[in-house]
Predict the structure.
Amino acid sequence: MLRRFRLEEPDTIQAASDLLVRFGDAARLYAGGTELLLVMKEGLVRYERLINIKQIPNLNQVKLDNGAISIGALATHRELTVSPVLRESLPALVQMENNVANIRVREVGTIGGNLCFAEPHADPGTLLLVLGAKLIAAKKTGQREIAVENFFRDAYETSLESDELLTEIRIPRPSAAGGLAYLKFGYLERPSVGVAVRVEFNGGEKKWIAEARIAVGCAGPAPRRVEEAEAPLKGKSIQEATHLIDEAGGIAGRASQAISDLHGSQEYKEHIVQVLVKRAFQQAVQKS
Ligand SMILES: Cc1cc2nc3c(=O)[nH]c(=O)nc-3n(C[C@H](O)[C@H](O)[C@H](O)COP(=O)(O)OP(=O)(O)OC[C@H]3O[C@@H](n4cnc5c(N)ncnc54)[C@H](O)[C@@H]3O)c2cc1C
C-alpha cells in the first residue's frame, strides 16, 4: 500500500536543492517514479515528501553542445529512442534504450532516475562507461562534473551528495574511426549481464586497434570498466584481436566482480560475460 505523502513542485534546480536540504531524509526527488513508487508501495522505504522535478524546464533536452552529446537527466527512455541527435551520433545508445524494460517504463522512466537509483541490473551505466561520459550534478551553490566511473559506489549507492540533482549526461561524440556495441542477456524482468565494447582504430591504411574499452554491468553490485581485459587487444590488428577475444572475455568475466544471485551463479555470469564480450567485439568491429 502506498502511504500518504506531500508533493513539492519546484521549478528550478536551486529550489529543488533547497527542499532537499530543508526536509533531509524525509524527502526524495521524484522523476518518472517507476522505481520510487515501487519501493514505497512495497513499504521498503518511506518518504513524507516527494520532490517532483519534472516541472524544471529544459532538463529533458538532447542536443549537441560543443562537439559533445548532452542528454538532460529528465529525458525518458522513450525520448532517447526517438532523438534525432542520438540516432545520428550514437545509434548504439538508441538501440540499448529500445531494449530497456517495457514500453510503460520507457514512456515515463528517465535516464537520470535509472542512473541515480543505481539498481545493479540496469543497462545505461555500462554503455556510458565505455563512452567516457561525465555526469553533471547541481545544487543551490553550483555544479560539478563526475566521471561516470566515479559515480556508482555500490548497489543502490552513488556519489551524489544529499542536496544534489543529476542534471545532465555529457558524452564526447564518438569518432567515425571506431565501433561500439552493447549486448545484454537475461531471462528475468531485468538484465542478468550487460557488456559494452568500444574499439577505436588508428587512422592509417593498415588498421589496428588504438584503443579498446570494455565494461560489464549487472554481474556485480555496480557496472565497471574492466581495463585488465582491454590490454591484450590494444595495438593489435582485427585478425589478431579476434584470436585473443576469448582470452579477453575470460579476463573480463573474472574482473567483473560477479556475485551469485537470483540471476545465476558467479561462474555462470562470468561465462556469459565471456560470450557477450566476444559477440559485442564482433559487432563493434563490423560497425567500424
Ligand atoms: C518492470 C521494470 C523493468 C525494468 N527493466 C529495466 C531494464 O531492462 N534495463 C534497465 O536499465 N532498467 C530497467 N528498469 C529500470 C528503469 O530504467 C527505471 O525504473 C527508470 O529509468 C527510473 O527512472 P524514473 O525517472 O522513474 O526514476 P524515479 O523512480 O523517479 O527515481 C529513482 C531514484 O532516482 C532518484 N532520482 C531520479 N531522478 C534524479 C535526478 N535527476 N537527480 C538525482 N536523483 C534522482 C530518485 O530520488 C529515486 O531515488 C526497469 C524498471 C521496471 C519497473
